[in-house]
Write a structure and sequence with these properties.
Layout (H helix, E strand, L loop, with lengths): L1 H17 L1 H18 L21 E4 L8 E9 L3 E2 L2 E11 L7 E11 L2 E4 L10 E2 L2 H6 L5 H5 L11 E12 L7 E11 L2 E13 L1
Parallel strand pairs: 3-10
Antiparallel strand pairs: 1-10, 2-4, 4-8, 5-6, 5-7, 5-9, 9-10
The structure holds 2-acetamido-2-deoxy-beta-D-glucopyranose (NAG) (4 copies).
Length: about 210
């Protein structure tokens, strides 16, 4: 279910939050990547030629085919939009697991940030950015599930049992972290041993 995705995002946020040194490197590398590409091999797409502009509108969509997926997100909403950092983010979601999903849960993550009107792929550095995680289950096994997950009996670790899950009014604090503000988009493709679990795309804006 969506849980995995939220966890990916939250894990991303919290990892960034607790590892300021990495964040600094992350943003430095990102700048470097921008300079290196120098407008050559970066995607131009819809923002071409425009000044950076905050999207301010959270978007998500399925980027696979829901009829073939084991994890189907039915709804997902956040507030506030844009997401203020530091701050509190509220999330609602409902999702269905058609089958129990267990290790090894591979996640292919593509993270992009808008820079001067271009979408720049954030490289994978120290396990942050556009990374492939060979087993999210292993990464989550040591995690402390956020309170709303525990309270609402939504799993945050493997196995994700077959069933429907709903998270309502869940609040998460995003501490000051040094994460650069701006427009981000993320594509997360999940699979277990080559079996497609789900693919989700999210666009969101982080602001001060
Ligand atoms: C999974 O469940 C969704 C929603 O109930 C359904 O649309 C989809 O066809 C199912 N996928 C599989 C592979 O069973
Ligand atoms: C979540 O759902 C509740 C109840 O339906 C609603 O009041 C709230 O505004 C929703 N929050 C978000 C972030 O969508
Ligand atoms: C979520 O919060 C809204 C307003 O704060 C409230 O009306 C709603 O009942 C809450 N929903 C749940 C499921 O707690
Ligand atoms: C997601 O992964 C599956 C294989 O697991 C692949 O067929 C598909 O093209 C990928 N989709 C995206 C959007 O990357």
């Amino acid at each position: 279910m969506q849980n995995s995705l939220v966890i990916v995002l939250l894990a991303g946020c919290s990892v960034m939050a607790v590892q300021p040194a990495d964040v600094v490197r992350f943003s430095m590398e990102e700048t470097k990547a921008k300079e290196q590409t120098n407008g050559v091999d970066i995607s131009r797409e819809e923002t071409k030629g425009r000044k950076p502009k905050l999207l301010g509108s959270f978007q998500w969509k399925n980027c696979g085919s829901p009829s073939k997926e084991l994890m189907v997100v039915e709804s997902l909403s956040i507030a506030p939009d844009p997401i203020a950092i530091p701050g509190t983010i509220k999330i609602n979601f409902t999702a269905v697991f058609n089958k129990t999903v267990d290790a090894p849960l591979q996640v292919d993550l593509k993270l992009e940030k808008e820079e001067f009107g271009f979408w720049i792929e954030v490289p994978c550095i120290d396990n942050l950015g556009s990374c492939t995680y060979s087993d999210l289950c292993e990464s989550l096994s040591q995690a402390t599930c956020p309170l709303p997950f525990v309270q609402q009996k939504v799993p945050c670790k493997c196995p994700f049992n077959k069933g429907s899950y709903k998270l309502s009014n869940a609040s998460f604090n995003i501490p000051t972290s040094g994460v650069p503000t701006g427009n981000y988009r993320i594509t997360a493709n999940l699979s277990v041993k080559g079996v497609f679990v789900g693919c989700y795309y999210i666009a969101a804006t982080l602001t001060d």
